[in-house]
Amino acid sequence: MPVSKSFTLIEVLVTTSIVLILTILVFPDFRTANSSFALQRSAYKLVQDLRRVEEMSMSAKSTPSSFGSELFPQGGYGVYLQEATGTYSIFADCNNNISMDESGFAFSCKQATAINPFPEKMEQILMERSITVKSIYNSGVERPSINLVFFPPDPIVKVYPLPPPGSNGIIEITLTSGSSNKTILINSTGLIEVKN
Questions:
Q1: CA-to-CA dists, residue 170 to 136, 141, 173, 184, angstroms
Q2: What is the pLDDT at residue 36?
Q3: How far is CA 20 from CA 6, 12, 65, 140, 191, in A?
Q4: By three-state DSSP, how is residue 83 classified?
Q5: How do residues 33-60 score in pLDDT, each as one tens digit?
Q6: What pLDDT does 30 receive?
Q7: Which of 100, 107, 55, 64 shows the shortest CA–CA distance to 79?
Q8: 125 DSSP 8-state letter
Q9: DSSP structural state of residue 65
Q10: pTM here?
């Protein structure tokens, strides 16, 4: 009787079922890993943008020509964050009020005042899908939104709303993807770091 060198139907079924079981076990971890990487990318992108804004202030970068005149804004450059959103904004603080003005009647950044502001938003950044700002703490006090403004030469970090008197001056921003979180810390001297 000749010896057959082919697979039997049972061997093919067993191999197929093992591959199917392994695929079912690995696929849920793939989604979790993808969500975790999206959170990590968003956290580091926010840190990168915070450092970019800090550098714009430190180098006394002029505002774009769309702001009416190319000059360094009176209050420096800042980032505006709000809880439960997946976006944040970079702005030039034209009127030195430590907050982003979204509208106003001034014709240029140079003419902006507290009473007559200029629209200061330079760029709005969208975080990855399903990533949102979970919480914002200013020296241990939870805030629904925050304006972080960097001003040269040290850099000086200005925060609005103002921190409580005698506080440690640490800003804590937590991003979430639902099941996991990343926290970004900013201290009053401009040191920015990602925690956990």
A1: 11, 10, 10, 10
A2: 86
A3: 22, 12, 59, 49, 49
A4: coil
A5: 788 888 999 999 999 999 999 999 999 8
A6: 66
A7: 100
A8: E
A9: G
A10: 0.81
